[in-house]
Amino acid sequence: MNNQELFNLFKHSKLAQVAKPLQKPLRGKGSVPTHQIVYTPKSSAIRSSFGIKTSLPKQIGFSHIVFNDIDNPKNMPDVEKYSGPHYNRLKFQESGLVLKNYYSEKNPLFPSDSTKISANLKSSVDSVIAELNLNNESTPEDVRQILKRNPDLYEKFQKWLTKNSPESYMTNMPSKLKKLAREFLSSEAVSKKEFSLSDIANKGGSKIRIQGTGGFSYNQRGRLANSPNGIKNGVIMPGRMVGDREAAIGGFIANVNDRTTMLQYNYSKNFPGKHSRQFVMPFKVNDAEITDNGRVKLYADGVKVGSWMLKGYNPDASEVTYEASNPNFESAGERNRKDNVPLESLLNLISNSKK
């Protein structure tokens, strides 16, 4: 095939009709979200009305779109579909999981000392760098710049110590000197790092911490959850194994206990003619937490289910029991009752032998 034949084949193919993006993908790995996310209901999307000045083709679909261009009535912006995170959030809310957040103990809607960014920063970074508006992600270059702004830092500390705590020269207690050094660094005598808009856009700069749950879940911790079948003691969600210790559950990668999923993983990996990710299996989600940078972490255990996983399977039986691979799936009372049975039998044997 010569170049002319290849050109004619490409010219009349559907690949030639695909629009070439004018810039890099909008859903890139940028540190700051500069794009606009637009949601439209299905009734408006059928009329190609997404709330912008120009109509979009029906191939865009429904739900969410994202674009970076300036909206104008003459040119259609370069848009992309962006409905994945929206449905991940809906699936997470439908599961009924309670999202744990260890970085904001109180309600973030009401200001307090624990909900302020500066207080969270100083409490999380147990170092003197927190007094200089730095964090664990600060580079050595940031520290050098602050030292250049304070060339006579030692002389200032000596003067400040003479004025505020002169008895420290005689006692020389390290714990007290450390406390006084922090007070000195937090005072106005020291030039600290000044925050600007460029620090927010900088990938390695100081980042604010997540407060609240980010809209993923509004369920209260410890609240009783009911279902049509009774009280819910756990959350069972479908997922796929993507590794020996990882599973895709509800659009998130969860950490699973390999002891509870070893049989499922080996079965799906060695099944002839199918890929391991084609098997959907149940998981018991134990915990869900949100980190300080906004990432959601799930911790789950495998659940033994199906005829091929039950040891005492009887094909003639009308009902198939589902047993949990994790003994903690049962309530505390049931576990204690099972643990007391062998102890009671042992005590009965001892008492009978004495008689």
From TrEMBL:
<protein>
    <submittedName>
        <fullName>Piso0_004604 protein</fullName>
    </submittedName>
</protein>
<dbReference type="InterPro" id="IPR016712">
    <property type="entry name" value="Rbsml_bS1m-like"/>
</dbReference>
<dbReference type="GO" id="GO:0003735">
    <property type="term" value="F:structural constituent of ribosome"/>
</dbReference>
<dbReference type="GO" id="GO:0005763">
    <property type="term" value="C:mitochondrial small ribosomal subunit"/>
</dbReference>
<dbReference type="Pfam" id="PF11709">
    <property type="entry name" value="Mit_ribos_Mrp51"/>
</dbReference>
<dbReference type="GO" id="GO:0070124">
    <property type="term" value="P:mitochondrial translational initiation"/>
</dbReference>
